[in-house]
Write a structure and sequence with these properties.
single chain; 632 residues; alpha/beta; TIM Barrel; 9-stranded mixed β-sheet; 16 helices
Length: 632
């Protein structure tokens, strides 16, 4: 085995700029290069394009400025980017005057509408990550198989949910688990990772996960560090910290650091009394990253959330045992008085005022309901409501200046937190593009697209989505930058967004001129150990050489000269075009288009060189993965 890599110092927000020749990719997308070229490699002999997207302004997901180019797709993979004016295809999309971007990747979603995905496709989203906040099935293999059988309209991945594992093993009571029970939680989560989960999610603000101590969580997660995955957590706000978002985010970072997982502050926000402290929170993230603990976040572009009273307002002791316990304490006068006082304190700390809480199903604010009930106590009003049910609420938690700072943070990805009854379910991504990019100028268009594509893909460990480059999966979003906008409001949360014109999922058109086609081309996406969570980093040099042979199978790659040959296992494949070289510590990956020398047919390929595990993996479309040991 021969292996060599080289890279230049970081550029911009951790992105490294390629100024050396890149086979098969229009270098004009890399703005730092002095004399970009639009030359592309010739098509594999006899191959025809299935789809060409013509004449759009291509933003490739790297964060670099757009260039006018055509994008060609064969067999669900990008094959060429550049001037394809003399080429033909079975289907052509005229993208003149439009932006062509990778399909948006939503790393935090509670959506269940996967078969139609109208609200998702209407936002330009092509990939959904389910089971956030520690909520979801524990049998990941079964969940993914069922999702696959249902033929989703978009791609689907999932997290292994910590809170669900805690509930399964420890139950709903506030008690300390045994060492054996901690090990059971670890086993449940590892089974999820083995089945293809993209990380371990948690919602430590929710009971019963709330009852787990920091040390217990670390004990359960630390054995999973070898998976090199991420830990997105809905941080917990406790009475002991004055319901401090800062303390909760600090705990998320601590858990990730001690357990060896990438901490991700999910739907990041500064709540209630801590409004105005986004700068301090982001400084905390920068400090962690600087000391070697890469810390990321995801954020949605709203300052009000969707929840219910028991999730965030009812004190933990009152829910020790579930709703039956809650109703018991509501009937006991001394306990009820304590609960009323503590719920009022929590509401004011998190949401500032009962006027900021709209109770769904009653179409009134909590302040309105207090007047109708004849009480001046928000806690007493909530207690009265909880005696009958536990309605959902829309609660304003944040301040616009904080949101803007979080949106601008280089390692904060855009995510939907999609759920019904909130405008984010239909408006998140167009709202960023229409309001925060076009109207407010808070983000550049290229940076916003990066935060919706390449960045989230890197955070969760994806290797073949998030960028427009040869060999990448052909997920595309084509939108009108001049008109894209959200239309959903808190009063009308299901109003569809405008300006998303075409969405392509795995090479097939799922949204045509703003209307769903009914095509269900989504795939279930599974992660492996060879796909580490990482900062988004593209190599500055195309120097990558690998040679390995084992059991009659051989791979020889020289990326600098554009040479790739894979033989054995009944096939011979030759590389014809290469995508972006992604790198991390002792790890690199590149996508490619390969030609089957027997049939001439092009195929997508993903190559991963993993020094940490001593392996080279070649995943060829339609075939089992080929793996070589480094040094063979």
């Amino acid at each position: 085995m021969k292996l060599s890599l080289s890279a230049l110092p970081g550029y911009g927000t951790g992105i490294l700029v390629a100024c050396a020749p890149i086979v098969g990719l229009a270098l004009a997308v890399l703005a730092a290069c002095a004399a970009p070229s639009t030359t592309v490699a010739p098509a594999p002999r006899g191959a025809a394009f299935d789809l060409i997207v013509r004449g759009g302004s291509v933003l490739d997901g790297t964060g670099h400025p757009a260039v006018r180019a055509d994008v060609g797709v064969v067999a669900g993979r990008f094959t060429k980017v550049g001037d394809l004016s003399h080429e033909t295809a079975a289907t052509v999309i005229d993208a003149s005057g439009l932006v062509v971007a990778p399909g948006f990747i939503d790393v935090h979603s509670h959506t269940t509408a996967l078969a139609t995905a109208v609200n998702i496709l209407g936002q330009g989203v092509t990939t959904e990550l389910l089971n956030p906040d520690g909520i979801g099935p524990l049998d990941i293999a079964r969940q993914l198989t069922a999702t696959e059988s249902a033929l989703p309209a978009v791609n689907v991945g999932v997290y292994a949910p910590f809170d669900a594992a805690w509930r399964r093993v420890v139950g709903t009571l506030d008690r300390r688990p045994t060492t054996a029970e901690i090990a059971q939680i670890t086993t449940l989560l590892e089974h999820g990772l083995q089945a293809g989960a993209w990380g371990v999610s948690a919602g430590l603000d929710y009971k019963p996960g709330y009852y787990a101590t920091t040390d217990e969580i670390v004990a359960a997660l630390a054995p999973l560090r070898g998976w090199r995955t991420n830990f997105p957590n809905h941080e917990r706000l406790t009475p002991e910290t004055g319901f401090s978002s800062m303390a909760g985010m600090r705990e998320t970072i601590e858990i990730g650091e001690r357990a060896g997982l990438v901490p991700v502050i999910t739907h990041m926000k500064l709540q209630g009394r801590e409004q105005g402290q986004a700068g301090a929170a982001l400084a905390m993230m920068r400090a962690a990253t600087a000391r070697g603990v890469y810390t990321a976040a995801d954020v949605y572009p709203y300052i009000a959330g969707h929840t219910d009273f028991t999730a965030l307002i009812v004190p933990a002791w009152a829910l020790d045992g579930g709703r039956a316990s809650l109703l018991h304490w509501l009937r006991e006068p001394t306990a009820r008085a304590r609960m009323v006082r503590e719920m009022e304190e929590a509401l004011l700390a998190r949401w500032n005022s009962p006027a900021n809480v709209r109770v769904l199903g009653r179409d009134q604010t909590l302040a309105d309901l207090m007047t109708a009930m004849g009480t001046t106590s928000s806690g007493e009003a909530i207690a009265h409501i909880l005696e009958a049910d536990n309605p959902e609420v829309i609660a304003t938690f944040g301040a616009e200046p904080d949101l803007v700072k979080i949106l601008q943070y280089p390692d904060a990805a855009i995510a939907c937190d999609c759920s019904v009854n909130h405008p984010r379910d239909a408006g998140t991504f167009p709202r960023v593009l229409g309001h925060y990019v076009r109207a407010a100028g808070s983000l550049s268009l290229a940076e916003a697209v990066r935060k919706m594509t390449g960045l989230p893909a890197s955070i969760i460990g994806m290797v073949d989505r998030g960028f427009i480059a040869p060999g990448m999966a052909a997920d595309l979003t084509v939108f009108d930058a001049a008109t894209v906008v959200d239309r959903a409001t808190y009063e009308r949360p299901r109003e569809r967004s405008e300006g998303i014109r075409f969405v392509v999922v795995n090479g097939r058109i799922a949204l045509d001129n703003g209307e769903p086609t009914g095509v269900r081309a989504g795939q279930v996406l599974r992660r492996t150990r060879a796909m580490p969570s990482r900062p988004m980093r593209l190599a500055s040099s195309r120097v990558l050489r690998v040679e390995a042979e084992d059991a009659g199978r051989r791979i020889a790659l020289d990326l600098a000269t554009g040479q790739l040959r894979i033989t054995g296992a009944g096939l011979t494949l030759e590389g014809t075009a290469f995508g972006l070289l992604q790198t991390a510590a002792r790890w690199s990956s590149v996508t490619a288009i390969v030609r089957d020398t027997a049939t001439g047919a092009p195929r997508g390929a993903v190559l991963i060189i993993d020094e940490a595990f001593g392996s080279v993996t070649a995943q060829i479309d339609g075939r089992p993965a080929l793996v070589w040991a480094l040094g063979s």
